[in-house]
Amino acid sequence: MAPPRFQCLNMVRQITKKGLNVKAAFSTSHASRFGTLESHDQLPPLTPVNSTALDEPPRARGTTEDLMDLFPQRSAATPKMQQPASQITLGSGVVTADAPVGNQRVYNLIRKSKVRADERKQAMRRSSAATEDYTNHLRGQDLSKQITRRWKVGDIYAPHDLSEVEMAKWKRRGKPLYDVFDVLNLNPMEHYRNFSIMSEYMTEMGRIRHSKDTGLRPVNQRKIARAIRRTIGMGLMPSVHQHPEILYKEVQRYEQNTAFKAHDAPTGIM
Q: Where is this region: Disordered (predicted)?
């Protein structure tokens, strides 16, 4: 039987041949470092140990360093793992050919929703612009009605010429040069129900205007006078003033054109 020292060497030789076990791999002893050698058939030569080396405490080696020695070092030329083609980015709008059908459908829904939102914003912008243009047109139309005098290029005017008194002078209509009913081919007797036409040939006090003011031929002047009397006799128009609707329209026009408002006036002393 071999001495105990050789028996221990035989056991170490068997371990090195079969490879390191779990306990030897995580050990910090000097024997565990022998397992990293490429040849396990031969033991490393024994070196004489000095007494001074035995007195020095062994330098501890971390477990992490032993584990890193077991795995090969990763070189810089090793390619990195690429992102699978099935992953897509919906925000950037990139879709690969190998993308799943579900992801493509989700991307299409998001893209269509963005398109619909853009179309809705453009429609709202167009409608707001059209509304603003229509409002400006109405405002300009209201202001143009207040201008009774048509200015020409080169006309000289003073601030007094823009007053309401001077504008009222330009509202007076001159004598008509043509017979309106002959131009329009109308019979005054057929329009006796139209109080707007009848009021054009009546004064504010309900009198029939003269032919010098109407500009009608004698035949049409007699017809319009007969139509006015028929309208008054049927009760469609008053005989001493204009039609109430025409009076109401004139009051509205006056309130729009004047700077003085009725509700701004003092209500009186209680």
A: 38-63
Beta bridge partners of 137: none
Q: What is the pLDDT of residue 86?
A: 45
Determine the 3-state secondary structure of 220 from DSSP: helix
User: Which superfamily does 177-254 belong to?
Assistant: Ribosomal protein S18 (4.10.640.10)
For residue 94, give the DSSP letter.
Answer: B
Q: SS3 for 89? A: strand
The percentage of residues in the chain with a pLDDT greater than 90, rounded to a whole number, is 18
d(CA 156, CA 251): 32
pLDDT digits (tens, 9 = 90+) for 147-200: 777 778 888 888 888 788 888 888 777 788 889 999 999 999 999 999 899 999
Q: How many CB atoms lie within 10 A of CB 242?
A: 19
| Token representation of residue 217 | 């031929």
Lowest model confidence (mean pLDDT) among 47-61, 125-139, 222-236: 47-61
The ranges assigned to domains in the chain are 7-34, 177-254
Q: Which residues contact 167 (CB under 8 A, 6 or more apart)?
A: 146, 147, 148, 149
Handedness of CA 138, 144, 183, 242 (dihedral sign): positive
* pTM for the structure as a whole: 0.37
